[in-house]
């Protein structure tokens, strides 16, 4: 493969596909390289926030053909004291939360990128990258050298691209670690609402049950690395958590795992890692863009992918300008929210903090409705501290996909 591309993207997950779609629409010649073949499984909680849904809609993704797409209207949260509060999302104004297995979501995004004109090279790993004054050269297994003006690294937390460029942090293994299983035969309570349990010994982590069609659910839990639960003890703890009476009461006695559990690390330190090299931008998990409070990363992946693409489209061949524009975009759109989420995570790390948060959020119908919208990124974490965002009418914006709702 000797053709020269405008942009080469490593990784065809949400971040990489968002970049590819945006660039292809802008008239760029784009190639996306991924070591997997699609559709492929991906360990994830499968939840989509309002922020993620709006970005997906803007990218042109149609949820109608995705049979496993499950809109969510009610969120139930149980505090460490046993108090359970139901938080309703707005009705009739579009989707504010949804659940869809990543195998289906990522495949749909890959097909969208191809339909926009991006070239996908599947089953091919990036084995090296060299940045020159005028281009980047990627060594791709079975395909030789791929040359482009710019590269976008969307290749996950363990980003080989970051390692090849000497920018990988030594010894970093993620800020969170998560387990999940797909369950079938769940009770109506679990098949119709999204559940979160704040269990005292894993704070600020939590147990979740995210509903899927046909009586199925994505059930799992996450813990903060270095917190009260050692990563090596998570398997034993998971077996104990799923037997707890209040969790089984929601899942139902007939509920059972249909797959083995999957585990994965979660990076959440976008304000502490290099976002660019000379001609390469890091996006999604490769930029450690996950929300440090909830573990949500799909909205951040989409946003960083689109931001990197728009920097390329705006900057032309000026590499310094492109890199500077992307860094500025990330600082403007994500840093304040990331730091606010980190501070809130410290509150949820204590039993009084988690209890108080659930109690205050559940005080009135207004607080319940707007807490649910805030939790699912309908408006930014740090909306109070960023006045420039107030014009976006954060409490009245409709959801995504109103025509499919």
Could you describe the 3D structure shown?
- The chain is an alpha/beta fold and 405 residues long.
- It is 32% helix and 23% strand.
- The protein contains eleven helices and 18 strands.
- The protein has helices spanning 14-25, 50-58, 102-116, 160-164, 188-192, 234-241, 245-251, 298-315, 319-348, 351-361, 365-375; strands at residues 4-10, 30-33, 47-49, 70-71, 74-78, 84-88, 97-99, 119-121, 126-131, 136-140, 144-153, 176-184, 194-197, 206-212, 216-224, 256-257, 262-266, 280-282.
- Strands 5, 6, 12, 13, 14, 15, 16 and 17 form an eight-stranded mixed beta sheet that branches.
- A hairpin with a 3-residue loop joins strand 14 (206-212) and strand 15.
- Helix 1 (14-25) packs parallel to helix 3 and helix 2 (50-58) packs parallel to helix 8 (298-315).
- The protein is globular, with a radius of gyration of 21 Å.
- The N and C termini lie far apart (44 Å).
- 50% of the residues are buried.
- The mean pLDDT is 93.
What gyration radius follows from the Cα positions, in whole Å?
Answer: 21 Å
Helix content: 25-40%
Task: Note poorly predicted spans.
Answer: none
**Which term fits the overall shape?**
globular
Beta-strand fraction estimate? 15-25%
**Biggest sheet descriptor:** 8 strands, mixed
**How many β-strands, per DSSP?**
18
**Average pLDDT:** 93
Spell the H/E element sequence.
EHEEHEEEEHEEEEHEHEEEHHEEEHHHH
Distance between the termini: 44 Å
Question: Structural class, from secondary structure content?
Answer: alpha/beta
Q: How many helical elements?
A: 11
